[in-house]
Amino acid sequence: MNIVEEITKLKKEKNAIVLVHNYQRSEIQDIADSLGDSLGLAREAAKTDAGIIVFCGVRFMAETAKILSPKKMVLLPRKDAGCPMADMITAEDLRKLKEKHTDAKVVSYLNTNADVKAESDICCTSANAINVVRNIKEKKIIFTPDKNLAAYCQRFVDKEIIPWNGYCYVHEKIRKEEVRLAKERFPDALLLVHPECNPSVIDLADEVLSTSGMLNFAKKTDKKIFLIGTEEGLIYRLKKENPGKEFYAAGTAKMCRNMKLTALNDVYFSLKEERYAIELPEGINESAQKALEAMLEYV
Ligand code: 13P
Ligand code: SF4
After folding, report:
1. How far is the CA of 13 from the centre of ligand 1 (A)?
2. Which CATH superfamily hosts domain 174-249?
């Protein structure tokens, strides 16, 4: 039996599902029971009947699955797969900010650690951030940790958004100069960018979308050529699901090293030895769960 067959056998024996983020390596995408963006995968985790969830992504995604399905075993195949942006704010940082702005509601991006979610009123992902922010009735919003997503939301609402100064090192590497050159090289291409990009890159975009938002858009439109302003893993899926269309990185391909840590043998050992199980400290679950469940109301 090859490793993929072994994984399939273990999945069946253990009633497990494998959730995979769109940035994962191609061979991991190919074994997914569900492949998607942060919001889609959070929804899958909340509704699955499986006893074990193996999360191929980064830690905050697996923690989200655990918070939404606390009775299930949630496994992160690589315990070192973190998200540097999530580590840019601590719960203590957020408590201090809340003390300064007692009249503000707190929106935290899914890309945060569980104790930061527990200090937040509601979470959001790149897919529903604008809707979440729009629907808060308060005029003042603390938005953590991504300053670029906060600035993008600010374009759509007449409210005061107080951003935390975090960012994604992968999306920040996409520079407007290289994007301009890519547009010159492919004048017929549509430029799709992720809202974690710098505002100067967002200004050049035809569409600003989450990873699954880009997939849905590329499938529906008649356009044939696309420049993609996000982590390069998505391009594999875009090409696979749209054989008649062309997809190029908007500049040099940018890779998230954390997302690429998980290999097939990690998934195999994760299932076989039930490692590495996500456990959250007491007291975190309930308030973080409230913030996450509030987010699931929004598309
Ligand atoms: P999506 O929510 O679009 O999947 O993005 C998650 C992420 O980590 C982006 O860097
Ligand atoms: Fe975090 Fe950026 Fe990697 Fe997404 S791409 S997991 S935000 S470092």
Report:
1. 31
2. NadA-like (3.40.50.10800)
